[in-house]
Amino acid sequence: MMNADTQITLDQYYAAVVSDISARFPVFRTVEFDRGDFERKHLPVPACLLEITEFEDDGKNDPGTEAWQCNARVEARIVFGFRTERVKLQCRKLAIALAHFLRLRRFGHPEKPGTKLPTGAAMLVGCYEDDFSPVLDKYEVWRVEWIQNMTFGPSIWNDEGETPDKVYVGIAPDIGKGNEGQYTQIAGDK
What we know:
By secondary structure, this protein is α+β, with helices and mostly antiparallel strands.
């Protein structure tokens, strides 16, 4: 029997994304989610500033588990200081490399090495120059966006107890409690 536990937490997702991007792009001096309270002169650059900007219900792909399935819109801002040589080119090149890395990506599970988070593959939206972040107006900034399907909340189908190793079949009306002797074993050790 397969466990239907496909839920994740934001903490797990954040840790997985930061870990995978940091490992693949050691050039980033900063990789973190939700950093909005920094002072410009203290931001180690180049930086990859991450943020989830939207959770949209994905009712059309409801797995029937009573958990909430949604599409998260995620943004990564690639930030360079203006003192970087050929800053516009460097920023664009790193944004393209990150977009390529993210395309169809499933991030590694931070608590289960060697496994991936139970999410859909990252669906790349695009790569854009970002002139609309006033707090970052002293930097060259490009934004990479993607959508990732994820599930929040427990499934009603999570395994509990032991998985049976034998399968029996009965024919109505001789089924249920008290009719165990009427059942025929069809799988498992006999």
